[in-house]
Amino acid sequence: MLVKLIKLFIALSLAVPPALGVSGYALAATAPFVPGDALFPIQNFAEQARVQLTWDGTTRTALLLDLAERRMRDLQTRSGSDYELEALIALDAATNDAFTALSKISADHSAPLQSRMATLSVNTLNVMSRLKILPKTNPDLLAKAQNKMRQIGLAALGQGKPPSLAPIAGGSPSSPKGSTPTPTPNTSVDPRAVPFIGADASMHSFFPLNGKHAALDCSACHTTGTYKGTTKQCESCHANVKPANHYKGDCASCHNAADWKNVKFDHVLVGATTNCESCHSNKKPANHFAGACANCHKDATNWKNVKFDHALAGATTNCESCHANRKPVNHYAGACASCHKDTTNWKNVKFDHALAGATTNCESCHANRKPINHYGGACAACHKDTTNWKKVQFNHAVAGATTNCESCHASRKPANHFAGACAACHKDTTNWKKVQFNHAVAGVTTNCESCHASRKPANHYAGACASCHQDTGNWKNAKFNHAAAGATTNCESCHTNRKPANHYAGACVSCHTDTGNWKNAKFNHSSIGTTDCSSCHASRKPANHSAGACNACHKDTGNWKNGKLSLSSIGGTDCSSCHASRKPANH
Predict the structure, then answer these.
(1) Beta partners for 263?
(2) What gap in Å lies between CA 247 and CA 237, rounded to an integer?
(3) Per residue in 327-338, is it b (16+ CB within 10 Å) or e — as a string?
(4) Residue range 204-237, pLDDT digits in tens
(5) What is the CA radius of gyration of the chain?
(6) Which of 29, 174, 251, 317 could form a disulfide with 234 if both were Cys (CB 3.0 to 4.6 A apart)?
(7) Mean pLDDT computed over every residue of the chain
(8) CA distance from start to end of the chain
């Protein structure tokens, strides 16, 4: 028996939660109860649980709008009963939740939900205007709810600041029984106006209250309190903002109710696909193409997006009939198509000289491009490439200009230039800077000064240039032959200015035996027959030097720093006579 009871308990434990879940979902979906019913709190809990189990923000906002619309219908159901206040408070809470969720949705997904919120605002204000108990028992709270609902509608359309979502009444809703404060009349609508009877916006389907129309009070259009016969034409309200020379057709062809500045004109819808000038003649520039607009303007949404089809317009040959004003001065007089192959870009030019029969007489067109002192021969002698006149190759042989260079290049000849034939140096006719002078051919192998006198330095050797300059290709590569010049003894006749101060007065060859390098000197003391070193080296003798003979210490005349003093050689042992200055104090 005990085992059976345990099994029954387990079965009930597993079956009850799913049953409750299914029951709760059905209760949330069907919503049979309204505020004031005993089971409404349970239904409200089930509705909120369903919302909390929805993770997607857009879907959750849509569910909350469903609940707000349901509470609006509940308020309409409770109109005239003692539960108007409870229904209004429930509607306020549901609207707060829906608007809060809507504010968190991205702009990409919020447009349809914003429209629903704006429509809910209008419909709710319509229901509030027909309440019977609250206008008498709690008019201030009702006015507060109406004002808040208007603000929510405007904010949903982006026309106002976000409203305060504080509850219109704190605590639990109290029964209006026994409370009859002095009623406050609602002066927002003409008191003579006949209330609009209808459960929702579908009753206004003949002129849908969507977009910015959804946030308007009824009195904005029904100004006399009369509904029937109110015109549906946009101009009846918006004539003051219609520009001069505006399109005369239906406003809805371009404008939507959400934003009248967001315009999209459908040419096909209004049957305006051919005769463009009937509307756009004032936008047509001077000297515009006289043909049909559609030849160029394919995109009706952007008239600046133009593509002209020359073939379609029958304008493939006589270009000047339209483009004469774009033709530059001194332009080629032939057919435009000779150069302009691309009709979409007139700057993309390729001239076919052969097609135009202009392969020989270049000057007939290009004379104004010919530089001063230009070659007088045929252009084709140099300009082989007709697509690039800067690409030049002159054939001297073809032009018969292989000898008399000066006839063309005299202006390029430097001052003091060689007076002989140009070909003596300029072998390469394509590069005049590439020079090789043949002295033998020019017969100038001896008298160098006849050409190079201006290049001779001051105090230069007065003898023949060939004594030093053996290489005529490089005058800096010089080698002087003293024997050939007969200058092997009297060095000073040329090198006086190179002799240092206090130089040895004897013959140069006593030291300078290598005429190729005067720095390579070696002095032979024995050759001059002297032992008196001071006669030459007195300036090199240090202060307080021994007064004795130099050779007492300096045995090696090739290196005076290699000295060795012998005391016996100076005949004395009195050290103080020489070294007194080196003696320490208190010695």
Answers:
(1) 255
(2) 17
(3) eeeeeeeeebeb
(4) 667 777 777 777 777 777 766 667 778 777 877 8
(5) 59
(6) 251
(7) 76
(8) 136
